[in-house]
């Protein structure tokens, strides 16, 4: 007679399903991060600016009176523009959001 291996199968299926779930959650998190990076880059690259951004330099994104985004070197505390966020371009030409220090706010 064949040995009853149903307990082993159930335990194995549970283990495999947990691994699939963990992998799916990891891929989902990576997808969300990639989507956020894409949206951030679209926002900044579609903004108006008339200069060539320098690597490592922090730029500030604002909206004008028509709600159109524009990029500036002027810091938020130095103006009354509608502030959106601060960004820096990296060596891959991707924009990264820069968190402002509490002392800057």
Strand count: 4
Head-to-tail CA distance between termini: 76 Å
Uncertain spans, ≥5 residues at pLDDT below 50?
A: none
Helix share bin: 25-40%
Integer average pLDDT? 92
Number of helices: 1
Largest sheet: 4 strands, antiparallel
The proportion of strand residues reads 15-25%
Strand order of the largest sheet: 2-1-3-4
**Shape summary:** rod-shaped
Total count of domains: 1
> Secondary-structure element sequence?
HEEEE
Structural class: alpha+beta
What does this structure look like?
It is a single chain. By secondary structure, the protein is α+β, with helices and mostly antiparallel strands. The protein has one domain. Helices cover 38% and strands 21% of the residues. The protein has 1 helix and 4 strands. A 4-stranded antiparallel β-sheet has the order 2-1-3-4. The longest helix is centred in the N-terminal third of the chain and has 40 residues. The termini are far apart. The mean pLDDT is 92.
